[in-house]
Amino acid sequence: xxxxxxxxxxxxxAAKEVVVHKGLLRQEVIIPNPHPDICLYFLC
Length: 44
Description:
Blueprint: H1 5-20
């Protein structure tokens, strides 16, 4: 995901609420300025 940090944080919080109850969340990380090469592996 990319966008305004507040919007990204809100989206992560919403997703976390869904998956944490299913036991699917291992770690939550927000990278504020990812290197362009990392976008190949994540949603950027």
